[in-house]
Amino acid sequence: MSVAFRRESDDEHLEPKFELPIPHGPNLVTPRGLAQIEAKVIEIEAALAHATDGEARKKILRDARYWRTRQATAQLAPMPPQDAVAFGSRVRFRLNGQERTLDIVGDDEADPAAGRIAWSAPLARAMMEAEVGERLDFGGTAEAIEVLEVGIADSMLD
């Protein structure tokens, strides 16, 4: 029989399901970020207890592995200094003539639409250790960023 007509199972033709990628580097978190991870683990464990469908259960198990790993590796960041940009800082800055304010948080807590970017994002990395009044190169442009104010992000105060 030709190999073209032989089929062991339908599963061999499905796209492989990969694990959720773990961000590179330490898993720094704010107090709010740690609480969010813990809540996500509780939510997933509850969903797992009620999952009966095989495919849905596999997806929930994959999510559970990710979030349990993130919970186990979470490192609560110390309070940032108020005179220089660091993890947990709220930074008001000017970029390309527009003034913006962003909080620098952990990878899982990042939500750019809400004004929170991951500490591993290029913009956050460009501003790390900068002080008020400094001009920083970014995106191939000299002095593209001007740091206007540095404070503590709300997520560090939760």
From TrEMBL:
<dbReference type="InterPro" id="IPR001437">
    <property type="entry name" value="Tscrpt_elong_fac_GreA/B_C"/>
</dbReference>
<feature type="domain" description="Transcription elongation factor GreA/GreB C-terminal">
    <location>
        <begin position="81"/>
        <end position="149"/>
    </location>
</feature>
<keyword id="KW-0808">Transferase</keyword>
<dbReference type="Pfam" id="PF01272">
    <property type="entry name" value="GreA_GreB"/>
</dbReference>
<dbReference type="GO" id="GO:0032784">
    <property type="term" value="P:regulation of DNA-templated transcription elongation"/>
</dbReference>
<dbReference type="GO" id="GO:0003677">
    <property type="term" value="F:DNA binding"/>
</dbReference>
<dbReference type="InterPro" id="IPR036953">
    <property type="entry name" value="GreA/GreB_C_sf"/>
</dbReference>
<protein>
    <submittedName>
        <fullName>Nucleoside-diphosphate kinase</fullName>
    </submittedName>
</protein>
<dbReference type="GO" id="GO:0006354">
    <property type="term" value="P:DNA-templated transcription elongation"/>
</dbReference>
<dbReference type="GO" id="GO:0070063">
    <property type="term" value="F:RNA polymerase binding"/>
</dbReference>
<dbReference type="InterPro" id="IPR023459">
    <property type="entry name" value="Tscrpt_elong_fac_GreA/B_fam"/>
</dbReference>
<keyword id="KW-0418">Kinase</keyword>
<dbReference type="GO" id="GO:0016301">
    <property type="term" value="F:kinase activity"/>
</dbReference>
